[in-house]
Structures are given as C-alpha cells and as structure tokens.
Amino acid sequence: MKRYIKQKVFSWKDRLTVKDEEGRDLYFAEGEVFSWGHRLHVCDAQRREMIYIQEKVMSWKPRYYIYIDGREAAEIVREFSFFRPQYTISGLDWEIKGSFWEHEYDVLDRKTGARVASIQKEWMTWGDSYEVSFEREEDEKMLLALVLTIDCVMASEAASAATAPGSV
After folding, report:
1. Which of 5, 58, 132, 146 is the most exposed place for a label (fewest CB within 10 A)?
2. Total-model pTM
C-alpha cells in the first residue's frame, strides 16, 4: 500500500492531507497555531481524531509523544549525533535507517530486520510531499504519525538554523 502526505502551502499552521493511491483524501492533519511546541491532530475523512502528536517542550532533546485513538502509543526522541540524525522509538520494536537529510529512510522491525515501510520525500513539489510504502494495514496509523513527527523535528531544526545568530 502507498500513502501520499502533502503539505498545504500558505497556511498559518501546519496543514497536511494524506491521500491513497487513487488520490482520494483519507486523513487530514492540522497543527495548533498558538502552542508551546508542535501539536498536530490527525483526523479521518469524517473529521474524527485518530492521531495526536505532542512535542515535550522542556527537554534536552527533541521529544514527541504519539497518541493513537486516545492512548499513548510511542515516544520518539531525536538523539544527539554529529553526522546523521538518529531517532529512538519507545513503545515499538522498530528502528529507522537511511538518510533523513534526503528524506529517504526505511522503518525496520528490530527483531527480524524486515522492512516495515519505506519513506521518500518527493522533490520539486510545492510544499513538502512524502510517499509512504508499507504492507500491513495495521501499521498505517503509526507510520503516518512517525513520518509527521520526523517532519516536525526537521522543520524545527531548519527554522532554528534560519533564525540563529549570524544566519542570513
């Protein structure tokens, strides 16, 4: 299965749409404008919230909590590293490998080493756009939450770099 995540441009807050392979809208993600840290709500086509992503603000490392259907399902932490971004996922037996700077990475089952999903950023598009390929339908919500969380971390880091002293 494939899902396509597309960012809406020209919006005061984060807005994304998730489509299926036929181009039908499946999910809608919307961030909160005036909140400390990222907060993202993902709803189905009937506008029922299914995923909630919340950044822990007072933390040494970027830390996000993922809630699926009202229950905490995972915690994602961006680890300090010099050469390539690394993430720790608590609550799942998954690990992430690949190039985050190029937005091409795989989600692997830590026990078996099998690929759970592959994620690719589509370049030359208006706004961020991702393709998520996966096999098991039961992984869909968590994979969407994972991609959206990593996108939040990367966007925060890009914004911090752009506003750092000495940046142009």
Report:
1. 58
2. 0.81
Phi, psi of 105 (to 5 degrees): -150, 165
The CB density around residue 92, as the number of other CB atoms within 10 Å, is 18
Helix, strand or coil for residue 60? coil
Residue 26 vs residues 72, 105, 111, 149: alpha-carbon distances, Å: 22, 23, 31, 18
Burial of 102 (C-beta count, 10 Å sphere; 0-12/13-18/19+): exposed
Compute how many other C-beta atoms are within 10 angstroms of the C-beta atom of residue 34: 6
Measured CA to CA, the distance from residue 17 to residue 32 in angstroms comes to: 16
Per residue in 4-25, pLDDT (tens digit) is 998 866 444 578 899 999 999 9
CA distances to 13, 99, 104 from 27, in Å = 16, 26, 22
- Backbone dihedral region for residue 118 (phi beyond 0: left; psi -120 to 50: alpha; all else: beta): beta
Burial class (CB in 10 A: 0-12, 13-18, 19+), 14: buried
Q: Which two tokens stand for residue 133?
A: 């390929």
